[in-house]
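Bumping with the actual sequence this time:
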Amino acid sequence: MDGMSVLIPTYNYCCVELVRELHEQLILIGLDFEIIVADDGSTDKDTLQENNAINLMTHCVFIPREQNIGRASIRNFLSQQARYERLLYLDSDAKICRKDFVSTYLKYDSPIIDGGVTIDYNDSMKHNLRYHYEFANKGNHTANRRQSRPYQHFRTTNFMIKRTIMIEHPFDERYRYYGYEDVAFGKVLHENNIPILHIDNPIWMEGLEDNYHFIEKTEEGLRTLYEFHEELQDYSRLLLTINSLPCPAIWLIRLWHRLFGTWERRQLTGNHPWLSLFNIYKIGYYLNYSKEE
């Protein structure tokens, strides 16, 4: 069926403005469409109430779910609800930064198209670690850079995929907690020779969490990475980095983290985080967690 299903998983985040912008673009294009927002067990009642406004827009539906089923499962649920063959997945904290965002996707005919993300310098975010991390990696967000390793650079933030592919190759629902479900999905696509086309059709990253919650999510992601490290050896940049380190360096980083990990965490969650320290902290946290398990 010709048309587009825009699928947005959300958790404790109001995405009414995102839906409104997408709705306006789709109406102007004249394409048959639906926008489905699925809430993954949000605990913030005010946000749930605000997102109910999505139901007032034509061809739009907000589906609240009582239980949190995880980032992989909620995306599979959305694909099962969709009626069109084109599926456009967006994170709920995305911000559309161009008026031809949807129409740009329609110019390409590829099984999977990754539009990418972007972030612009904002002086008000100078104390935000996530912001500095993404800004420092801005060069990796270009289509050319992502296409150089298309499966390793795949992200679930902003991509279009054929529904038949999603149904045949759903996200791995073992990835119940934060992190790496997109890396695992990229591996599945690679193993099944399903091409990914990376284009420059980015969304802006909005709603960046504060430093404390960013570190908490990072640690959760590192625990997820360890759980599936044998499967993700050639797809995780962090694992590739760790595997390239000589044994003395691994021993020193592990010892450093044991001695100074608490201090590192305090610094990273404060108002003046060091990005270079963050990279060391991730390796140290992973190495010590892997040894304890």
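The tokens above came from a reply further down the thread. The mean pLDDT is 93.
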